[in-house]
Amino acid sequence: MKTIRVASYNIRKAIGTDRRRIPERVLEVLGEVDADIIALQEADRRFGVRSAAIPPLLLDMLSGYKSVPLNIQTDSMGWHGNAILVRKEAEIGVHDVLHLPYLEPRGATMAEITAKDITVRVFGMHLDLSGLWRRRQAAAVIHAAAQGESLPTILMGDLNEWSANGGCLADFGRHYSFAPCGRSFHARRPVARLDRIMHCSQLTLKACGVHESAAARKASDHLPIWAEFSVD
Question: pLDDT value at position 3?
């Protein structure tokens, strides 16, 4: 039985709970999580040229990951802050960005990844603060995920949904299962499950959780969440 480990992490532009921007701490946390595929949110700086919060040279030298090349902005890692990292030996197939309806600029990313001889399609997202726009964005992601080949599909990201099972959670839940990872925000004292991992019926959830370590509690105001899946 083949297994794959994925994670989602809002890195807050590499600004930690001490308000210091230290991308090396984010890379330390990614090493601790040790996932095959990682969806990042707030992976680019917000203003100016919106350069990557983790400089490409640091990512290459201090981690075992590479970013899915979105080819949108020269200095950015992601699309509206959404990026997908994969192990350096992983194969990247079809990949694209999604234009979502928005009140404030939002987007999502998609990539077909082969890691450990398993091919999955991954969507990364960071949804709106407004409940109405979150539901519209969820509908757009669900529609996009229904297109193309019938690959095992994983959706991950910061949904910004504070309700227990309403709003966009109910919309996603009609099509996908949620990994019950746990509370990930705020990193110092988690009270909300803003970060979520969802999966289709082709994948079997083996384990999941929130990564809580000393480094993770400092590197961002969100804790990373992770899940392991098997494909029969």
Answer: 95
Place of tokens 């746990």: 182
The pLDDT of residue 47: 57
Vertex 78: Cα angle to 31 and 65 (nearest 5):
25
Structural domain including 192 reads 2-231
Closest C-alpha among 68, 70, 72, 80 to residue 44: 80
**What's the CATH number where 217 sits?**
3.60.10.10
Number of domains comprising the chain: 1
Q: Which two tokens stand for residue 190?
A: 């988690």
Q: What is the pLDDT of residue 145?
A: 96
- Residues of the chain with pLDDT below 70 are 46-49, 72-74
The token pair at 147 is: 């297109």
Question: What's the N-to-C CA distance of the chain in angstroms?
Answer: 6
Q: How far apart are CA 150 and CA 148, in angstroms?
A: 7
DSSP code string of 163-182:
SSS-THHHHHHTT-EEP---
pTM above 0.90, yes or no: yes
